[in-house]
Amino acid sequence: MSEAGRVFRTELGRVRGLGSAKEGVHHWWMQRVSAVALVPLALWFAIALVAHTGADYATTRAWLGSPVTFGMMVLLIGATFYHAQLGLQVVIEDYVHHEGGKIALVLLTKLASLVLALAAIIALLVIAFGR
Amino acid sequence: MPSPVRPLSPHLQIYRWQLTSVLSILHRITGVALAVGTLLLVYWLVATAAGPTAFATAQEFIGSILGRLLLFGWTVALFYHLANGIRHLLWDAGHGFELRTAYASGWAVVIAALALSLIAWIAGYASRGGGM
User: Fold this and answer.
1) Which pLDDT belongs to residue A18?
2) Is the ipTM of this complex over 0.85?
3) Measured distance CA(A67)–CA(A72) in Å, rounded
4) Structural contact between residues A82 and A69, judged by C-beta atoms closer than 8 angstroms
5) Which chain A residues are closer than 8 Å to B89 by Cβ?
6) CB contact under 8 A, B39 and A116
7) Burial degree of A77 (CB within 10 A; 0-12, 13-18, 19+)
8) How many angstroms separate the Cα of A40 from the Cα of each of A72, B82, B89, B100?
């Protein structure tokens, strides 16, 4: 190492690249990965919803319960809530400066995202396999 | 202690807004709005699973003036966040940082969001036979 640029990080730390938060770019990267997944999923969902505007109960259930729609909806729900809680976390961390309130709010959005995703997937399971 | 009457930066009364920063904060606002909007999506799915009565109630709400306003806002927010999200992904890949390009892609996002929203609603009304 040069004498001028004093490096306080160990070589192992540099190689691991995890930084002080110990998770490296994982959060940033997963927000991009879920964003890329959501591009086709959101477009599919918008087009499918437009095509089923005003559909009656039986038609809607048959559509949501068909294998392809069911699979696409589960992917959409998973990617949406994963992406949403990552994004909401960044917004909360930027604007909420009270440490306890920040942690509580981030945990609450993660819990809410999980519960909503679960509710949606259970609803889809009932539609596809229930009465 | 510093004087509490010092002007804020940016000084909002004389601040000249730029397209780029407005679109940046809009990306956040639409992101949060879409997250809140998932409540309606989950409610609609649960209502569809619950049975014909709950489904009819949900459809009635979505078809009301308030429901349609929410749904239209949700459509614009979705297409805006989608288009601007692609713009962000291109930046992440190292493209489009020139000031002219950033403005051009910004206007393209605005036009795409409005055009796709209008197309979706016109197609939606057409697919239900123009009724209601």
Assistant:
1) 83
2) yes
3) 9
4) no
5) 32, 35-36
6) yes
7) buried
8) 10, 10, 14, 28
